[in-house]
Amino acid sequence: MEFLLRYLWDILQGFIVTVEVTLFGAFAGLALGTLLALGDLYGGRVVSILIGAYTEFFRGSPIIVQLFFFYFSIPSLLETTFDAFAVGLVVFALNSAAYQKGYIKGAIAVISEDQMMAALSLGLSKIKAIFYVILPQALRLVIPAWSNEFCSLTKSTAALLVIGVKDLTSVGLRISSWHFRYVETFLVVAIIYLAWVTVVTKIADEVYERVKIPGIEISA
Amino acid sequence: MDALQQLALILNGVTSTITVSIVSFFIGIFVGLPLSFLRVYGTKSAQILIDAFEKFFRGVPELVLLLMFYFGVGLYFPFPFKNVFFTANFVLGLRSAANQSQIFRGAIRGIGDEQMMAAMSLGLSKVKSVLYVMLPQVIIYSTPGLGSEYALLIKDSSYAYLIGVVDIMAYAVWIRKATMDTFTPYVISAFLYILLTFPIATFLDRWGSRKKKQLGLERR
Lengths: 220, 220
Hints:
The structure holds two protein chains of two kinds. By secondary structure, chain A is mainly alpha-helical.
């Protein structure tokens, strides 16, 4: 395994790319997913159908297809080229938004079941009720689901290899093909992925414990 | 090459996509179901082992596992790991087993200890009460989860094209490379994947929810 020490710097750089894409995807996906959930619930029929089509595309097709679509298909229509890393950021944000929309919608439904009416009866407008009453509670509720989504997002970023982004997996593949040492290299890569996912999940759990409101849980 | 000819070519890959996903789905059931019961009713050491297995296969990207087993383990054990079909099913099957074990475990928890105790108080042995009382209910209880697991497998089977399985994705990439048409093949493949995932996942979800209601198993 000592040969891997020589590539510590390359592995670290690959890991940083993976970290950047997962963090950006998870947080941009959270913001966009919240908007989509609100649009789906309160935006009317047409908006709801459009959001349904969006979600079906991003949840129904493999991540590789989505990456190819945004890396090859769309630029060829516009007759330009896109930077592979930027495509990665955008695709994972859009993909994660489609998944997170579902969780956030569920959380909003749980909260607004009886609180919406209470807020309206206190004289808040619907928009104020959403932003001051429903969302702050719903976003707290969604943290455990967010950390699950973070795990699967991290795993799917390995697909960045197909459009040539030098993420952790593709660095691992290059190193191991130079040395013909696939098992050792990929074991180290796997452990790095596991550690990264574990650390973020632990942080999310801790945050959830701190901010959660006693008595309001998703199973209730 | 017009869109219809491309569609006809890509349709050749559908068999591989479906075969890989169905075979690994059943590997997942046959490995995951015993694991879930062992995890709940087994000894402490069995629980630790199963947790480690689940952690590894759920936390590491499928792509990393595929590359590790095909290139790495295949180097030492050319038979059977150099067979792309075997390796794809092996990796995706065990990944699915780890996922399904969690789905089944959730079902066992959801059904609750009372049924197990009731069965044992009627004089059934532990094995018999698992087989005759818990198992049928667990399977019905977890059909909605299994539906999304199947959809996940259809999508993840696209990773297998990277080690050489000739599925929808592989044909789409070939057509892109041969015709320089970067748009149509990916639209067609995205459409096919959505067509493969959406109806069955929705059907299993509906069927499972209805059946659960009939049997009075929905969450209280």
